[in-house]
UniProtKB/TrEMBL annotation:
CDD domains for the chain: Rubrum_tdh
Superkingdom: Bacteria
Organism for this UniProt entry: Hufsiella ginkgonis
Domain Alanine dehydrogenase/pyridine nucleotide transhydrogenase N-terminal stretches: 4-134
Keywords: NAD, NADP, Nucleotide-binding, Translocase
SUPFAM superfamilies given in the database record: Formate/glycerate dehydrogenase catalytic domain-like, NAD(P)-binding Rossmann-fold domains
EC number from the UniProt entry: 7.1.1.1
GO BP terms in the entry: NADPH regeneration
Protein name, UniProt field: proton-translocating NAD(P)(+) transhydrogenase
Entries under InterPro entries matching the protein: AlaDH/PNT_N, AlaDH/PNT_NAD(H)-bd, NAD(P)-bd_dom_sf
């Protein structure tokens, strides 16, 4: 089997696999092809890949002959291309039309963002490896934009109070944002609808603000669920009080497969002092504030609202390294010892990540969207 690493679109600096992983792949008795320039955004040259045993091939050669295509973002497949296997992060529930087209072309598609969030899946959980980076980078971005210090300082020239950071959503990105803010010396408050995260938040030295009446998440596979209107009203009132005293707000609240909840209104933003910064990490699914725009800095009453749905890509080497490890661990499930594709749909991880196979949509939620 030939596995090809495609060059990502111009906006993407990450790559599916770094050169270091090529040798491990070759041991699985597959051939590895790389599109020239694939690793350049992550500071890896074509030569780095060749030294590890990969062969350079053009996109046209790859599309004609490779079996499995590794591409983080949707690759621009040439019309008429048929029966490829693709692995990446395709947000299929937000792109049902594209998936339907790929199904007609007979492609088999694994979208790693759809893996179940189980213990066994942790080593291939691309959402976690990338969200961790986004949470870290969100805090650095906020600190760089903020016109004041993060830590408390007592100097001969006077004292500086620590920055107050408010974090909405304590999943992987949110918890990393708490840890990074704390390391920089900020005082941190956190909201989440899952009471299970309270202890983790407190162990990182932040305050967890509880709102009563959160919906039961026991059947949601660890994910958050949509909340009642009454809860949303109570939560908004609590958030409004916290926001009025916050200097930095980092929002990460998402609901799997749905639009992100709007937790911060323009009116709330109006109560923040000028120079404050909001980073919205949920912007790719609609955003947690009324004013966020993806890849834009919006300024409202002196408060800067930064929407960036691909912050992980701003650390392209480590993001690619961790992503590549996730991919390698997943490939072990679908490639046998002879280097052939061997799909066991009895494995919940293979089934969970598989969106399309043999011209059919195999994921129930994606199928329901086609109706
Ligand atoms: P996410 O990106 O889906 O959401 C971020 C956070 O926002 C979550 O903590 C969620 O509870 C919170 N949220 C949603 N609606 C909210 C609202 N209205 N107000 C406040 N907060 C709100 O989360 P994630 O980081 O992808 O993690 C999702 C779940 O998966 C968590 O339970 C996490 O522990 C679990 N997880 C499991 C694995 C694994 O075992 N493979 C790996 C990582 C995460």
């Amino acid at each position: 089997m030939i596995i090809a690493i495609l060059k990502e679109p111009a906006f993407e600096s990450r790559v599916s696999l770094l050169p270091d992983e090529v040798a491990a792949l070759l041991k699985r008795k597959v051939t590895v092809w790389v599109e020239p320039g694939a690793g350049s955004g992550a500071f890896c040259t074509d030569d780095d890949y060749v030294k590890q045993g990969a062969l350079l091939r053009s996109a046209a050669e790859i599309f004609a002959e490779a079996d499995l295509l590794l591409a983080i973002n949707h690759p621009a497949l040439t019309p008429g291309l048929k029966n490829k296997v693709l692995a990446g992060v395709y947000q299929p529930l937000y792109h049902p039309g594209l998936m339907a087209g790929w199904a007609v072309a007979g492609h088999t598609v694994f979208s790693l963002d759809m893996l179940p969030r189980t213990t066994r899946a942790q080593s291939m959980d691309v959402l976690s490896s990338q969200a961790n980076i986004a949470g870290y980078k969100a805090v650095l971005l906020a600190a760089a934009q903020y016109p004041r210090y993060f830590p408390m300082l007592m100097t001969a020239a006077g004292s500086i109070a620590p920055a107050k950071v408010l974090i909405l959503g304590a999943g992987v990105a949110g918890l990393q944002a708490v840890a990074t803010s704390r390391r920089l010396g900020a005082v941190v408050e956190v909201f989440d609808t899952r009471p299970a995260v309270k202890e983790e938040v407190m162990s990182l030295g932040a305050r967890f603000v509880e709102v009563e009446g959160t919906a039961d998440v026991s059947q949601a596979g660890g994910y958050a669920v949509e909340q009642s209107e009454e809860f949303a009203r109570k939560q908004k009132a609590c958030i409004a009080a916290s926001i009025a005293r916050a200097d930095i707000v980092i929002t990460t609240a998402q609901i799997f497969g749905k639009k992100a909840p709007v937790l911060v209104t323009a009116e709330m933003i109006g109560t923040m002092r000028a120079g404050s910064v909001i980073i919205d990490l949920a912007v790719s699914t609609g955003g947690n504030t009324e004013l966020s725009k993806d890849n834009e800095h919006v300024v409202h009453g002196g408060v800067t609202i930064i929407g960036d749905s691909n912050l992980a890509a701003s650390l392209p080497f480590d993001a690619s390294k961790l992503y590549g490890k996730n991919v390698m661990n997943f490939l072990k499930l679908i490639i046998d010892d002879t280097g052939a594709l061997n799909l066991n749909f009895g494995d919940d991880l293979v089934k969970g990540a598989c969106m399309l196979h043999d011209g059919a949509i195999t994921n129930e939620r994606l199928n329901a969207l086609q109706a």
